[in-house]
Write a structure and sequence with these properties.
heterodimer, A: about 400 residues, alpha/beta, FAD/NAD(P)-binding domain, seven-stranded mixed β-sheet, 21 strands, B: about 80 residues, alpha+beta, Ubiquitin-like (UB roll), five-stranded mixed β-sheet, two-stranded antiparallel ribbon, 2 helices
Chain lengths: ~400, ~80
């Protein structure tokens, strides 16, 4: 027998968008729950920070926090099926708000599967979870403002940051910096990071080309050289987690979940907020979460008052996207023998023989392992222009037997 | 402090430490072996990539980055699993 829970509003994801949505909805709704796979609320950006205002607000509200609870399927009715350890739990809802966040984009290059190569946000999350980093020589590489935040965090924890390598050009980064300088709060954030990173080389137009034990080869302006390091922390921007939205039948546009002005998806009663609708950072995620919370509880006027703030966030989102666009040279780093699908060890050469995602899956098993193409899918899309767009339940691997009653 | 076993070795960690961190504290960076036998360790740190899977209390393929250490846990990584 599985457990069964029912709420008026169910929010999936306890990051900035989900917390803001749940807190806002709880002002009016009879019952609100947030479901999240992680052991604590905060999402990736507030991981390990118990004192963030939105986390404190959620904790002092009637919102029920269901952590270590992974949504795996949607069994037809307005209900989700989740796994809590080995136990299945059915979570029924009247309105659903998806705030499933984003993950890092990883691009394959020779050596990227070595244990000393981690995600940028990935290494930060591990250190927040207690991984020792003091005294380790770390290079942070890839693309986006996250690299600076990660480098500053790791340095505060005692890591020696040898270099931050940003693939975007100097011109693009400087143009973006001027945008940031126009927003007082973002400028303050940046000045804090610059203080934390004083003396650390920030190389633009620079990217890793090969990782080996104890050293990583970089390229910049036609020059290639090796840098010694204990860890390479490497992420090429973020990709939205849209699997649950796709499973529920929500339409997506250019890889993001399509929403109307009230943050409602193409499925009535299903809302979406934060990174799945566009990579715009925590500020935009919070505004979208609040709008979704108001909309889901029948308060369109309150929602409308936040539209201007959301518009500002969206303008920033577009600048972010333009500045950190990935250069085509990065698609040439994978050699025929370089692994693209880490779950099934499928090399780039084998994948490149095929013309569509279904053929790639059927012929090579790329994307068929436990990550269900969350890592290799965005890589295949970048390398070959083939979107990995098939989603089927369960959207996360679950112990056999858990789904026996439902699928 | 919480006490767990990693490949038979006692590791004492602060409460809230993830199993992934405890494995690294134990000096082990090979969490699992890939299907071709390559050593792998954590990548995403957020429960998405399944590269940090280990055996915990006899249950295989658990994501160590999403799992807080609990007193008395027995963790086994690829090295001990597959020799």
């Amino acid at each position: 027998m599985k457990d069964s829970l029912a709420f008026e509003i169910v929010v999936v994801g306890a990051g900035p968008a989900g917390l803001a949505a749940a807190c806002t909805a709880s002002e009016r709704a009879r019952s609100v729950a947030i479901v999240d796979d992680n052991p604590a609320p905060g999402g990736q950006i507030w991981r390990g920070e118990a004192r963030t205002p939105w986390i404190e607000r959620a904790r002092s509200s009637p919102v029920q926090l269901l952590t270590e609870t992974q949504v795996v399927a949607s069994p037809g009715e307005p209900a989700l099926l989740a796994a809590r350890g080995d136990r299945p739990v059915e979570i029924r809802y009247e309105k659903l708000i998806l705030a499933t966040g984003a993950r890092e984009r990883f691009l394959p290059f020779p050596g990227w599967t070595r244990p000393n190569v981690l995600g940028a946000g990935g290494l930060q999350a591990l250190v927040k979870g207690g991984m020792p980093i003091a005294g380790k020589r770390v290079i942070v590489a890839g693309s986006g403002p996250l690299l600076l935040a990660v480098a500053a965090y790791l340095r505060r924890q005692g890591a020696k940051i040898a270099m931050v390598a940003e693939q975007a050009s100097r011109g693009a980064v400087l143009k973006f910096a001027r945008t940031v300088a126009r927003s007082p709060s973002k400028l303050m954030q940046t000045l804090g990071l610059m203080r934390d990173l004083a003396g650390v080389p920030y190389r633009t137009g620079c990217w890793p080309v090969e990782a080996a034990q104890g050293e990583v080869k970089f390229r910049r302006g036609g020059r290639t050289w090796s840098e010694p390091c204990d860890y390479l922390a490497c992420g090429f921007g973020l990709v939205p987690n849209t699997e649950l939205a796709a499973l529920l039948g929500c339409t997506s546009q250019d890889g993001f979940v399509a929403v109307d002005s009230r943050q409602q998806t193409t499925q009535p009663g299903v809302y979406c907020a934060g990174e799945p609708t566009g990579i715009g950072g925590a500020g935009l995620a919070i505004v979208e979460g609040r709008i979704a919370g108001y909309s889901a509880t029948g308060r369109p006027d309150e929602a409308r008052r936040l539209f201007a703030e959301r518009d500002r966030g969206n303008r920033f989102r577009i600048k972010l996207q333009e500045a950190f666009r990935l250069r085509p040279e990065l698609a040439a780093l994978a050699r025929p023998e370089t692994i693209v699908c880490r779950c099934e060890d499928v090399s780039f050469g084998r994948i490149a023989e095929h013309r569509g995602w279904q053929a790639i899956k059927m012929q090579t098993r790329c994307g068929m392992g436990p990550c269900q193409a969350r890592i290799c899918g965005p890589a295949v899309d970048f390398l070959l222009g083939i979107p990995a767009d098939s989603v089927r339940p369960p959207i996360f691997p679950v112990p056999a037997g858990l789904l026996a009653e439902d699928l | 402090m919480v006490e767990i076993l990693v490949n038979g070795k006692v590791v004492r960690v602060a409460p809230g430490t993830t199993v992934a961190a405890a494995v690294l504290i134990a000096g082990e960076e090979r969490f699992r072996h890939s299907v071709r036998g390559e050593p792998r360790g954590p990548l995403c740190g957020m429960g998405i990539c399944f590269e940090c899977c280990v055996t915990i209390d006899g249950r295989p393929n658990l994501r160590s980055c999403q799992m807080p250490c609990r007193d008395g846990m027995e963790v086994v990584t690829a090295v001990f699993n597959e020799g």
